[in-house]
Automatic annotation (TrEMBL):
Organism: Leptospirillum ferriphilum YSK
Enzyme's top EC category: isomerase
Keywords: Cytoplasm, Gluconeogenesis, Glycolysis, Isomerase
Described purpose of this protein according to its UniProt entry: Catalyzes the reversible isomerization of glucose-6-phosphate to fructose-6-phosphate.
Chief place of localization: cytoplasm
Catalytic activity annotation: alpha-D-glucose 6-phosphate = beta-D-fructose 6-phosphate
Similarity section: Belongs to the GPI family.
Protein's recorded name: Glucose-6-phosphate isomerase
SUPFAM superfamilies assigned to the protein according to its UniProt record, in alphabetical order: SIS domain (SSF53697)
Gene Ontology biological process terms in this record: gluconeogenesis; glucose 6-phosphate metabolic process; glycolytic process
């Protein structure tokens, strides 16, 4: 990959220094004063695209802030870097890989090349096989070992091979087959497998073993347990009709005992956390069917086009990404909340945690030096309005500023009395309350006793983005996910880091492999860890023997 010449390190650039100076200038301003100075601020601080409306007026920015951030984005060659991604260049240098999840939702006549080969035909060949398989399962043509149709689907996977499928299943439950059970086993804790299978008949159950590498310890251990559970009930030959695999590793799939004809492939240019619209989405497809799955892919594609073709200043993911950099790096907010006002999106924050934090939790810039600025913030969240009765107190009156994204839909999926109006009134109220707070004068006017006034003041000036879409549909879900994918990309480009590797998770995996035999070995192996780890291992060994 040719990384466009970055010139000076980021923090020594003039635009960077200007942004730092600008931060000092802007600190005394509040959202209240910014709105007072420009009552029509909301009219120009919003953007629309791919069916999403993005109001970013309640950020601690001026027009000048945005201009500087856009200048920095151009200096970082963001438009070229976007083009590099779409052109299949190896923009993940530490793994020497292209990053082409956008090809997963291509239309048949698109062209996306990796090493000179157009990958679109392969993508559609896998999709076509998935559609055929889904038709067989959903129609009952595919029979299990005893001749019964499949009623239960269990996805076994972890990280990107779990979070996307489980989030999408929950998000699209309204569109799913209600006469089938969809469950997800990820944790190595045997409770996960036990609870997922305890009331199921193996004869009606299909396991999808989802693992890009097909070596992940948790997934392979859970898959072995599943195989045993199935074979105990139905005999050794049952794997053929009750196991399929989603992976890039055909040899390992075969070695496990799954017929490669029942394997759905993907490619090393799809990162785990960017894979939910690859074959990793098989459980989603089985749940919602071909038409809805296609519409999910179209939603992704629409946002991809928007991201690729829209000028930076009107580009939703770019604007969002720049605001994340502004809040996190320049204004020092260590976390970002994401609060979907839709119960179906209850797993969306968990999904975004992997997408954002595995991507941008990096301290090394592309040239190998340690960055001297803050990179990816902690992402977290819960659906509204539940969060309001739990942690919002800290956002309103705590000592830390937590910028947040509030996501809502204009039309409910289940119109029921006043529910949806109340839901959306709360979303808008939170955005307003967080921005403008409640002043001493307001409280005096309300006759609040003077001693209580300091406790009831809300300082405001807490930034929020509001994202609105028409309705939660498969299409909308696709656009929303692509919006965050491309925002993450934008942030990574500004920070000059590799958003597509995840070396940090390796160390814990290696140490777990070392500790495992130390917990169970007989005789007790010599322990060479620190005193804390040694003592914990001994305590566990004693409990295990008692
Ligand atoms: O733990 C890191 C990770 O590599 C993730 O990036 C990935 O999504 C997950 O493990 C699962 O990996 P696999 O799909 O290969 O089992």
């Amino acid at each position: 990959m040719t990384i466009p010449d970055q010139g000076l390190p980021l923090s020594r650039r003039e635009t960077w220094k200007t942004l730092l100076a600008h931060r000092t200038a802007i600190t005394p301003l509040t959202l209240a004063s910014l709105f007072a100075d420009d009552p029509f601020r909301a009219d120009h601080m919003n953007a629309s695209g791919a069916g999403l409306f993005f109001d970013y007026s309640k950020n601690r920015i001026t027009k000048g802030t945005l201009e500087l951030l856009l200048a920095l984005a151009r200096e970082c060659h963001l438009p070229d870097r976007i083009e590099q991604m779409f052109s299949g260049e190896k923009i993940n240098p530490t793994e020497n890989r292209a990053v082409l999840h956008v090809a997963l939702r291509s239309s048949r006549d698109d062209v996306f090349r990796v090493d000179g080969t157009n990958v679109v035909p392969e993508v559609h060949a896998v999709l076509d096989r998935m559609f055929v398989f889904a038709r067989k399962i959903r129609s009952g043509d595919w029979r299990g070992q005893t001749g019964l149709p499949i009623r239960n689907v269990i996805n076994i996977g972890i990280g990107g091979s779990d979070l996307g499928p489980v989030m999408a299943y929950e998000a699209l439950r309204h569109y799913s087959r209600r006469d089938m059970n969809f469950r997800f086993v990820s944790n190595i804790d045997p409770t996960d497998f036990h609870e997922a299978t305890r009331d199921l008949d193996p004869a009606e159950t299909l396991f999808i073993v989802s693992s890009k590498t097909f070596t992940t310890l948790e997934t392979m251990t859970n898959a072995q347990t599943a195989r045993k559970w199935l074979q105990n009930a139905l005999g050794a030959g049952a794997v053929e009709k009750h196991f399929v695999a989603v992976s890039t590793n055909t040899d390992a799939v075969r070695a496990f005992g799954i017929n490669p004809e029942n394997m759905f492939g993907f490619w090393d240019w799809v990162g785990g956390r960017y894979s939910m619209d690859s074959a990793i989405g098989l459980s989603t497809l089985l749940a919602v069917g071909e038409e809805h799955f296609q519409s999910l892919l179209e939603g992704f594609r629409e946002m991809d086009h928007h991201f690729r073709l829209t000028p930076l200043e009107k580009n939703l993911p770019v604007l969002h990404g720049l605001l994340c950099v502004w809040e996190g790096t320049f204004l020092g907010s260590a976390t970002r909340g994401v609060f979907p006002y839709d119960q179906y999106l209850k797993r969306f924050p968990a999904y975004l945690q992997q997408l954002t934090m595995e991507s941008n939790g990096k301290h090394t810039s592309l040239d190998g030096t340690r960055v001297d600025y803050e990179t990816g913030p902690v992402f977290w969240g819960e659906p509204g309005t539940n969060g309001q009765h739990s942690f919002y107190q800290l956002i309103h009156q705590g000592t830390r500023i937590i910028p947040s994204d509030l996501i809502g839909f204009l039309h409910p999926l289940h119109p029921t009395g006043p529910h949806h109006d109340i839901l959306i009134a709360n979303l808008f109220a939170q955005s307003e309350a967080l921005a403008f707070g409640r002043t001493e004068a307001d409280l005096q006017k309300q006759g609040v006793p003077p001693a209580l006034i300091p406790h009831r003041i809300c300082e405001g000036n807490r930034p929020t983005n509001v994202l609105l879409a028409e309705q939660l549909t498969p299409h909308t879900l696709g656009t929303l996910i692509a919006f965050y994918e491309h925002s993450v990309f934008t942030q990574g480009i500004l920070w000059n880091i590799d958003s597509f590797d995840q070396w940090g998770v390796e160390l814990g995996k290696i140490l777990a492999q070392k500790i495992l035999p130390e917990l169970t070995g007989d005789p007790e192996p010599p322990l060479e860890h620190d005193s804390s780890t040694n003592a914990l291992i001994k305590r566990y060994r004693e409990a295990r023997l008692s």
